[in-house]
Amino acid sequence: MLQYRQLSYTARGLLADLLSRPDGWREDGRHMADTSPQGRGAIRKALKELTDAGFYRVEKIRMPDGTIRTETHVYDTPWFAPPPSTTPPAPGEAATGRAVALVKDPEKEPTLPDDDAQLREAVATLFRVIRPEPRLRLGEAEARELAPLVAQWLERGSTPTDLAHALLPGLPTPLHSAAAVLRYRLAHKLPPARPPAAARYAECARCHDPVPRPGICRACAGLGTPAASVRSAAATATVGAARARALLHAAKAGFGACRPEDAAA
Questions:
Q1: Which residue, of 11, 127, 200, 242, has the fewest CB within 10 Å?
Q2: Is 77 helix (H, G, I), strand (E, B) or coil?
Q3: What are the residues whose beta carbons fall under 8 Å from the beta carbon of 134, sequence distance 6 or more?
Q4: Quick one: DSSP state of residue 150?
Q5: How far apart are CA 61 and CA 80, in angstroms?
Q6: 245 inside domain
Q7: In what order do the strands lie in the sheet containing 107-108?
């Protein structure tokens, strides 16, 4: 991490300081800047470097009461980060973000539009599956990002039990990013797609003869007679037995007719 040459020395030093803090440590970007000899501008630039490189991520989480809280995640290896904003911060603007802390005064934000039913079901399923494991605590935004992968599992016939067996055992220690671990496992353990269901033949709604599609056959529709009738196994056996008996009787009759000639000879 400290050998990551794409980062400035200030950013690497700040990252080392953040990683040394215990979980739940509370200090916002402004306080970090005010207590640093580099000043706000340098700290703000260093935080942006860490964010762009995937070491630092700020996430807003909507609470059940509609308020928004902010969580900051710090990683010792690069993690995918959202594209950096193209709008530079205004001069003198304080650095934002919280180092593994929560916002003290949550602010109201507009309600986001509802997702479709499939993604809502996927989010709810994911939360049910990971609830027994406290280390896999996710924010709502993280769960929504993972929802498309969960939806693929559900579409392929997986149950919450299947997901639990794939996601919960053998978690790394320490676990730096629950979302990263879940994303990797959901993507790499995705079961194969179910084969298409075998086509079922249809029967005529009246005579029950096989037809290529649901409905009635041509004969029942008055459009012609069927090309061939399907005879039951019992009927076929009966006809075959009758023919065998007839041939046997004919053979016996022919044999009896020859006996007088043989006697005369």
A1: 200
A2: coil
A3: none
A4: H
A5: 18
A6: no
A7: 56-62, 67-74, 107-108
